[in-house]
């Protein structure tokens, strides 16, 4: 709190929240707010109320050089005033801002200054700062029309485009740094945070897998994008990805739609026409094949890749998973290192089921996966970052406009017997919130989502199930019998059964269950089943809880439960025999 602020203002001062919450809130706007708070404090006014910025914001704000702020001129005109020496006519210091007007010419700058007390000022009021425009010769302006008059030309988005690109690049760098700070759980850093060494991550690999580490030149890095090179948010995300690849010496190829090619190239990117989403993905795969390289495809909004190394959770409870997740060693991983690691794991698999597709965990946090295997081989591979090895002939279904990665994953399991997912490697991505790209393929009513889900279920009816919580989403579970297409399932009678037929069938089934119970030494119908031992599989635990306390005759042929793959099943003699033999249930006479 600034000196001279009233006691009421002190009461308004926000309580400091946990560092994890603060890190989530740190962004360009937060740094700009920290700058305004600093200017107010240094202005020395006694008549205004304001809150100090959190120390995390203030520290990071001071660490950013003025040359890396958006308000710094995108192009320094010859003989222009050094922004470090900006002052108003009255001698007030002007500090380079973190923001920038979209229409401000590239040679101009934007700053923040402290204001003076005037006749409108009231004790305990707001204000205290003003955002100003600074001409190349250092003259300060408060209003656009006055600045335009002095410049002699109208300000426009076209004149300010390079400034916006520069702003986007700086924001991209900041976005990457903030994501890395969150991974390391630190509030500030005196220098840029880089990725952890590839060598340190590769120590996790077995000796045989380490021999499979590929050279950087063995990869073809592809970014599938569209319609994102003309908006500030899109440009920022583009350079967020581009900068992480450039950091490790990789120049990716951007696969875009024909209409956007010129815009992407204007940003200095290596861009080619790919078409829509799935055609672009397939072109990237074909280009990699032609080059004899491993194909790596990543989305255009990744700000960080993280790997967590640690012990498996003791059980599947949230507390156990969160505790195991908290105690892990965290690695900040470059896209190149991530691709090398995944490929080495794939090539280290047994030849008969060696995966040709590998990827990362599908959520932003791997906390829930801490109770499962570190690497799994028949699970969904997210389309935001995946590796396709040489020799794969699988391609994307171009009839699909969404959820194409689900189908691609199933096709790989069918063709090669497995995939390879790193359950401890995660991405920091926007997914649904970004503009352009695949997100523009969605509609508010969800009709396109349902259309693509219908395609999935028609191709892989026994691998996809309705998501229990999310509308227009699916859960992928590859069946244990490997019959995802349902080719070997008994065909159901297409003719509707009459009421009498159904009654007859039910009576026969009941009679069979009773005779089976008597003839094969199972408990009598009136015997009560009780829970005895907890199963390791979740669906069995739920089944046993429903049965416990009920009689044999009350559950056989009557009780329904959800199977391991989401299908509805009826509890039968084989189920009872298994539960008793395994010790999960015990039968007691009444």
Task: Summarize the structure in short.
This protein has 590 residues and is an alpha+beta fold. It contains 19 helices and 22 strands.
Major sheet: order of its strands?
A: 7-6-5-8-13-11-14-12
* Straight-line N-to-C gap: 74 Å
**Gyration radius, in Å:** 31 Å
Largest sheet: 8 strands, mixed
Helical fraction equals 25-40%
Taken as a percent bin, the fraction of beta residues is: 5-15%
User: Whole-number average pLDDT?
Assistant: 83
Low-confidence stretches: 1-28, 121-126, 515-519
Per DSSP, the total helix count is 19
Describe this structure as you would to a colleague.
The chain has 590 residues and is of the alpha+beta class. Helix content is 35%, strand content 14%. The protein is built from 19 helices and 22 strands. Strands 7-6-5-8-13-11-14-12 form an 8-stranded mixed β-sheet, sandwiched between helices. The chain has a 4-stranded antiparallel β-sheet with strand order 1-2-3-4. A hairpin with a 5-residue loop joins strand 3 (129-134) and strand 4 (140-141). Helix 3 (28-43) crosses helix 4 and helix 6 packs across helix 9. The longest helix is centred in the N-terminal third of the chain and has 24 residues, at 161-184. The protein is elongated, with a radius of gyration of 31 Å. Mean pLDDT is 83; it is low at 1-28, 121-126 and 515-519.
Please render the helix and strand layout as text.
Blueprint: H1 7-12, H2 19-25, H3 28-43, H4 55-63, E1 94-96, E2 109-114, E3 129-134, E4 140-141, H5 144-151, H6 161-184, H7 198-202, H8 207-210, E5 219-224, H9 232-246, E6 253-256, H10 261-266, E7 271-273, H11 277-291, E8 294-298, E9 304-309, H12 318-326, E10 329-332, H13 335-347, E11 357-360, E12 375-376, E13 385-388, H14 404-416, E14 420-422, E15 425-428, H15 447-459, E16 464-466, E17 474-476, H16 499-519, E18 528-531, H17 538-547, E19 550-551, H18 552-555, E20 560-562, E21 568-570, H19 573-582, E22 585-588
Parallel strand pairs: 5-6, 5-8, 6-7, 11-14
Antiparallel strand pairs: 1-2, 2-3, 3-4, 8-13, 9-10, 9-15, 11-13, 12-14, 16-17, 18-19, 18-22, 20-21
């Amino acid at each position: 709190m600034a000196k001279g602020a009233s006691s009421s203002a002190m009461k308004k001062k926000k309580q400091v929240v946990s560092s994890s919450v603060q890190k989530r809130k740190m962004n360009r706007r937060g740094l700009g707010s920290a700058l305004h708070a600093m200017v107010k404090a240094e202005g020395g006014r006694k008549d205004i109320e304001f809150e100090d910025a959190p120390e995390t914001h203030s520290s990071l704000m001071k660490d950013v050089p003025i040359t890396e702020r958006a308000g710094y001129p995108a192009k320094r005109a010859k003989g222009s005033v050094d922004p470090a020496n900006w002052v108003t006519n009255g001698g007030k210091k002007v500090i380079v801002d973190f923001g920038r007007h979209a229409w401000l010419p590239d040679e101009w700058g934007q700053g923040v200054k402290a204001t003076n007390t005037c006749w409108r000022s009231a004790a305990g009021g707001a204000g205290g700062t003003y955002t100003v425009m600074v001409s190349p010769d250092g003259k300060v302006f408060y209003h656009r029309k006055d600045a335009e008059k002095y410049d002699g030309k109208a300000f426009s988005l076209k004149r300010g485009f390079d400034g916006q690109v520069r702003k986007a690049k700086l924001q991209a760098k900041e976005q990457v740094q903030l994501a890395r700070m969150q991974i390391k759980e630190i509030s500030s850093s005196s220098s840029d945070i880089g990725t952890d060494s590839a060598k340190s991550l590769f120590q996790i690999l077995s000796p045989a897998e380490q021999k499979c580490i590929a050279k950087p030149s063995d990869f073809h890095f592809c970014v599938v994008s569209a319609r994102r090179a003309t908006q500030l948010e899109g440009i920022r995300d583009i350079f967020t990805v581009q900068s992480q690849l450039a950091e490790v010496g990789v120049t990716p190829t951007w696969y875009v739609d024909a209409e956007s090619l010129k815009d992407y190239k204007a940003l200095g990117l290596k861009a080619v026409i790919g078409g829509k989403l799935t055609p672009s993905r397939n072109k990237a795969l074909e280009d990699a094949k032609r080059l004899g390289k491993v194909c790596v495809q990543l989305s255009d909004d990744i700000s960080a890749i993280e790997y967590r190394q640690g012990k498996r959770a003791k059980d599947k409870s949230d507390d156990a998973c969160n505790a195991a997740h908290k105690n892990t060693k965290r690695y900040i991983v470059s896209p190149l290192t991530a691709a090398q690691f995944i490929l080495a794991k794939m090539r280290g698999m047994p030849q008969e089921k060696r995966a040709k597709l590998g990827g990362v965990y599908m959520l932003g946090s791997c906390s829930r996966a801490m109770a499962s295997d570190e690497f799994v081989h028949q699970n969904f591979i997210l389309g935001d970052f995946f590796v396709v090895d040489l020799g794969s002939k699988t391609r994307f279904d171009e009839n699909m406009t969404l959820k194409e990665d689900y189908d691609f994953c199933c096709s790989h399991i069918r063709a090669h017997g497995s995939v390879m997912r790193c359950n401890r490697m995660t991405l920091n991505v926007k997914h649904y919130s970004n503009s352009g790209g695949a997100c523009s393929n969605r509609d508010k009513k969800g009709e396109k989502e349902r259309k693509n889900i219908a395609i999935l279920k028609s191709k892989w009816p026994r691998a996809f199930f309705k998501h229990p919580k999310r509308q227009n989403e699916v859960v992928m579970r590859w069946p244990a019998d490997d019959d995802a297409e349902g080719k070997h399932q008994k065909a159901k009678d297409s003719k509707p059964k009459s009421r009498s037929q159904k009654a007859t069938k039910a009576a026969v089934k009941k009679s069979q269950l009773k005779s089976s119970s008597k003839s094969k030494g199972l408990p009598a119908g009136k015997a009560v089943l009780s829970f005895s031992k907890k199963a390791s599989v979740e669906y069995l635990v739920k089944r046993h809880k429903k049965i416990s306390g009920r009689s044999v005759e009350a559950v056989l042929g009557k009780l329904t439960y959800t199977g391991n793959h989401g299908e509805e099943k009826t509890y039968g003699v084989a189920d009872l025999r298994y539960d008793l033999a395994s010790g999960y249930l015990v039968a007691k006479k009444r």
